[in-house]
């Protein structure tokens, strides 16, 4: 089951979603840090 999931397109969607979430989180974190510095 897991092997099929890893080969299928669903896992790519999951990783794509995770990447977007992480990118957004990092961006928000950087913006907050910038605001604190001023």
Describe the overall structure:
It is a single chain. The chain has 38 residues and is mostly helical. The protein has one domain. Helix content is 92%, strand content 0%. The chain is built from two helices and no strands. The longest helix is centred in the middle third of the chain and has 29 residues, at 9-37.
Brief summary:
By secondary structure, the protein is mostly helical. Helix content is 92%, strand content 0%.
Mean pLDDT: 82
Oligomer description: single chain
Number of helices: 2
Content of β-strand: under 5%
Low-confidence stretches: none
* Structural domain count: 1
Structural class: mainly alpha
Shape: rod-shaped
How does the major sheet shape up? none
Radius of gyration: 16 Å
Helicity, as a percent range: over 70%
The counted number of beta strands is 0
- SSE run: HH
End-to-end gap: 51 Å
What's the topology here?
Layout (H helix, E strand, L loop, with lengths): L1 H6 L1 H29 L1
Features:
92% helix; 38 residues; mainly alpha
